[in-house]
Specification:
single chain, about 550 residues, alpha/beta, Rossmann fold, 3 domains, seven-stranded mixed beta sheet, 23 helices, 7 strands, flat, transmembrane helix, membrane, P-loop_NTPase
Amino acid sequence: MKISNNLVLEVVLVLVGVLLSIIFLDISELYWKSDSHWLIQLILSFIVSSLIFGAIGMVLERNSRTGGIFLLAVFLSITYVLYERGFLLSIYGIYGFILGMLEGGYLSFYSYFNNRFDNLAIYSRRFVTYFCVLTLLYLAFINLEYFQEISQFSASDTDKLFKTIIMVGSLVAFSFLLRATIRGIRAYDVFIYGPSGSGKSLLLLAIYKQFISFYSGKRNEFILSEGNKEDLKIESMLIALENGELPKSNLRTDLAMYKLSGKNRLKPVGITFVDYGGEHTDNFDKVRYKETIEGLRKLFYSDASYLKKILENAGTTSEVDEILRQYVGTPKLNKILGDTDASEIKKMYGNDNTRRTEKDITKSKKSLISLLNKKLDGLEKKLGDLDGIQDLQDYHQNEFAEYVDKIIFACVYKRFESAGKIIFLVDGDYVVDFHNENNNGKNHLIKLFSNYSDIINKFGNEKSYAIVVTKTDKFENLSNILENSTEAKAIEHKVYDMFCEIPTFKEIVHMSNRTPIYLYTVSVDATMEPHIKDEDTEMQQKSLKIYPWRVGEIEKFSF
């Protein structure tokens, strides 16, 4: 279920925006002449066409659809007026429209087949601004010419000035509404996050089976553990389940990252799980992240950091030349930069017999610092990618194990930053304990939702969020409830009403007015009966099989 349904508000915004655009077109119709300057015709027709064909791509994605419909309604109307006035019928108007069609069509094609609607939204917002600014300049130029030619204002001139103000106001207003309504997310990149004990491992296995069955899926794993590495592999957890055993829990220093990737029709889809001991990640502060990254750079790339520092501190050209002589063409630089980049610097700087001017030395210094910055900045990219993290461990095994807490924090922060959709897990045991005398369940949920609220605040509105309550079988008998039935949806509403008693959850409800946030209740075993006792061995064995219930809702949200 969607926590806050903004459909009515979105429809009102679109209708108001379309009305403003009609007012603008009604007043500005006479300005769009077939004999306008060729450059104005070329650029405006290009922008209008680009926005129309870009909007078609936005309509194909759920979170971008409202903005796409709004764009189409406004700019198809503008296109009709420009066509009727002959503005688009000139050779430059036609060229501009065709070029815009090709660019907007390409961006829609790229966004759809790469599931990257965030780039399309950025592009569309930018072009709405260009349209607004260019149109304002065009109208200002024409009106300025007109008012300069008159010696004194008449009643008709006053009326024209009033209409000009209305026209400009309506243009700025509907452009602002368009920019506010256009949104897009990196839809292929989904991150599942939850505290220790929230059911991540079993949910991972349930979604993995779905990926293999329906999305031509494959897995990629990175596991850091002193004694648990084999047990944390997906294959080992599947074997454990087949043998009637629960997957082993992570130790405090364990880090396991799982990337499931596949294809939903022609679009790439992927889900990332980060499984860890549940610590080191309470405070997702940007300053702390920057400090952590800087510390890890000095740890993993100490030679690159040192070389950059001494180059920047070198005061004279001769000092720079001496430093370059010590590094260029040596194995040290190859180790720091890699063979390709080191060869590039050597080619530029030359060898001992090369005669170099001050300009040559300065150029070599700037190029080397640029390559060192590229190397250092690449650490953040590596921390967001499983293969990159594996490379860091392969080349820095001792340091990696020693600073695992900082690496976990940086990895999780980077996943939050880059993911387009984020799924928060809530342990169903907290729901079971919600009304206990000691308020254990409720207290845990107050803290948990406070953490999730902070994360949504810090990582912005250009994402979709889902709160997924696991272990629904612990508090509801699901054996006779179909996944898509009214009764199943009633369970979600019941849980939602319960959560609304928690002030920190109400914060999230308020955020849902501007950010898409969903709530789902799921179970990896619909055959379990509620409140099973740990000592009931037979039922415990039964509970170890995967019979997912409403896990498909996570897939619908994700893909």
